[in-house]
Amino acid sequence: MPKNSKAVKRELDDDVRESVKDLLSNEDTCDDSFKKSSLIVGGGSDAEDDAARPAWNSKLQYILAQVGYSVGLGNVWRFPYLCQKNGGGAYLVPYLILLIVIGIPLFFLELSVGQRIRRGSIGVWNYISPRLGGIGFASCVVCFFVALYYNVIIGWSLFYFSQSFQQPLPWHECPLVKNKTTMFVVPECEKSSATTYYWYREALNISDSISESGGLNWRMTICLLAAWSMVCLAMIKGIQSSGKVMYFSSLFPYVVLICFLVRVLLLKGSVDGIRHMFTPKLEIMLEAKVWREAATQVFFALGLGFGGVIAFSSYNKRDNNCHFDAVLVSFINFFTSVLATLVVFAVLGFKANIMNAKCVALNTKKIVALLGNEVSHDLIPHHINFSATVSAEDYQQMTEILRGVTEKDYRRLGLDSCSIEEELNKAVQGTGLAFIAFTEAMTHFPASPFWSVMFFLMLVNLGMGSMFGTIEGIITPLVDTFKVRKEFLTVGVCLLAFFIGLLFVQRSGNYWVAMFDDYSATLPLLIVVILENVAVAWIYGTDKFFEDLKDMLGFTPFRFYYYMWKYVTPLLLILLLGSSVIQLGMTPPSYSAWLEDMASEKSLKYPPWGLAVCISLVVMAIMPVPVVFFLRYFNIIDENAGVVSTISYKKGCIIKESVRPEEDDDASLIHAKSPGSEAPSPMPGNSIYRKQSGGVPDAAPNGRYGIGYLMADMPDMPESDL
Known about the structure:
The chain is mainly alpha-helical. The protein is 61% helix and 4% strand. It is built from 28 helices and 6 strands. The strands form 3 sheets. The protein has a two-stranded antiparallel sheet. A hairpin with a 4-residue loop joins β4 (590-595) and β5 (600-605). α6 (92-117) packs across α25 and α8 (134-163) packs antiparallel against α28 (624-633). The longest helix has 49 residues, at 322-370. 43% of the residues are buried.
């Protein structure tokens, strides 16, 4: 034994005894730079991952990421439709109530577990309840299904964006076809409208049914490839790359919405649309269907159950005030929906006035043709001049007189009512709102190409923000669980999704998008969130969870959350799941097909194989939950497998390496080596090291990254209770 071995060992014993004493007494004897260092006890690989886990550059970047994820296309084309359909301004009341009762508590719950455990959805639910570990896998499957068709919508937006740099816009009017003698309007366009024709025929080149694939639409295939390339490049470095993109993708849509609102308010008829929106229909608010649809919208607006919320929050510091984040992001989401609804109704009000003026002009010509035959000159008010433009008010006055005089024969005259209210009551949602109604309104804007470019660029950014969270909900859990390189996994997922996504860029692709939208997420996500709530509130324990939150946040959350998590929210979610199942049972699966000959939509039932696909989507999404449960219940997989064993202290000391011992010294045990051997310690599971909360770690003597000593099991050193 070398002569200095006893001195080295004595110094080591003193250092270890002092540092453990400091930790257990919770005394702050360290420098300020180490006040947030943590003691991590567990397996080597988990500890290394936690030390190397990336973090947000700033709180603003994190908030923008959560806002970008939760605020998506649904805020622009789903919320306004529900508001219009369910009582106008009165719909905001049940939505706000359910946001407070269901949305914020569940959003807070997901933020908390992600931040506390610092893992993706798979690791989080393995930790809380190993038998319910399938929840995380189910979230990943649902995220993948949603990403498949959601990026197709971004591809559609990219196509329209690329076509907007033209004056006039290509969907401004119906195309003309020339034969040998004459030119005529394309019949399909003449029977519908220019924007409808452009969407179904020029953009999608849609087939008549889901059974007719029709081959690939090469233009949409290129747009889909561009969309997946953008997602891959933004996500390849994880939050380090996507976080920087968030500054633009999250803020730009607000700039566009505000610019649209200011511009549209200067146009005729916009106030009619906003008045229509805020005119409450209180009797509708009492219907159960309104509350069910409001609950569903709250649920999907915040991105609950996908795993993206958990993934983003897992990169936070453990003492971050996630309660404030939950409330802030939820209300930003709500006010964004209201802002988007204002813009949509203002644009639809402007469009309704344009369409009403065309209707009045067309029917005025009919009245002029009928004068002297079926309509007497005496029935026309004297102040109306047919040589000038007839106003909507004058037309209404004429039709009321004619209806009163010729009660039985009025219908035979073939005159339309031409009402702005009727135009505004035509409920439009989804792609019909974005790619038909909105595009038609923008053709009447001054400098329409500019507004078209801005609108579709906004849609791309809204979609990208949601896609980043969705892909993070797939990548983060898989990286945490299977320890693969994030770059390789990101590229692999994007390539796989692109090739499967070719299904959605066939001529029948729009029908597949509708199928996945209806069946791949709704029921599975409801089941996932119910199980998440039950796992935390009833299996892990609400009291225990509250203690964890107090330790993490530094204060006890409001008692309101205790009762929400334990009783109210699970009950409401079960009722929502039951009503959704009943609704699906009462309405057989069908889709809206575009028939070229009729130039109109028609509801068709899915073929038998289509029904099988619908059922398979639901089953595949939820299957991981029972599979993992039974595998662990019957001990086929050890219940402790994958559980993160991490103990964190807010305060701690760093043991500095002062002596570099020789390889044949007894102190070589410190470096996890046996004297005269290069083999690692036989007990890596008991390794203890300290991690500094900032800065670049030094290379530990055994080649791993850490700060301080990696201590093996020493015969003359008592084993720590930690």
